[in-house]
Amino acid sequence: MENLDIGPRTKAPWTIGRSIRLVTTGLSFLFFGIGGLILALVYFPLMRLFVWDSDKRAKISQASVHWAFRLFIEFMQLMGTVSYEIHGAEKLKNCRGTVVVANHPSLLDVVFMMAFMRRTRAVVKNSVATNPFMGGVIRSSNYIPNTGDPEALIQACSDALSEGANLCVFPEGSRTPIGQKVKYQRGFSYVALKSKAPVLVVTIEVTPPSLRKGEPWYSIPAKKSHWIIRVHDVIDTAVDYGNDRAVIGARRLALDVQNKIEKELQV
């Protein structure tokens, strides 16, 4: 089988196509950075000035992030930096009050997911929530800061689901380390069971791998990376796990989700 996992550190030849993708990747990240600064320093402050209703402002902010991420991935595809296909996009678009769970092979996963989801409440690190550049975006979008209190975080996520918002969770916690098998964290299953919210499983494949944990942006594969995103059936947690004790149900749900994802990915 051809080895497509080739980065500059493996001395792959710098063909014209690969060199062009190095330039377009740099331009794409520059586009992302400038766009993020404009949103943080101009767009969201103006919104806070003119939209006083916090619920309305949160919905507009979440929709703005959704469309900004969609614009970014379409820009990357137009530039020839990446390509993608998504199966079941309507399920992501139409889900409400749902915990969306996916594997996490690359840096762009959250961008792809939020580009196709609506009304998404992201869970962010407390350091990001208090960052002077990002704090305004986080507060405007009503994202959920992780302050290190598990009970408070579960309650905040459960409240968000009850209000009809969606959560996007990568239970691996961080991008999958190269060549390592990971154990899924159970936080999402406690949240889903507490709020009786459905769980929607998504698998993400990137061929050849790109932007993995520990890889710099300029580690360009020999061929253009292609994302395949598959949205699977919803798990009805109230029906399938409702009779279990909380700890047992959470453990079983987390394990079932991991097994399903690994089976689909043939890990």
From TrEMBL:
GO terms for biological process: phosphatidic acid biosynthetic process. Pathway: Lipid metabolism. InterPro entries: Plipid/glycerol_acylTrfase. Residues 98-207 form the Phospholipid/glycerol acyltransferase domain. One of its GO terms (molecular function) is 1-acylglycerol-3-phosphate O-acyltransferase activity. It comes from the Bacteria. Pfam families: Acyltransferase. The chain crosses the membrane at residues 20-46. Keywords: Acyltransferase, Membrane, Transferase, Transmembrane, Transmembrane helix. This is Phospholipid/glycerol acyltransferase. It comes from Hirschia baltica (strain ATCC 49814 / DSM 5838 / IFAM 1418).
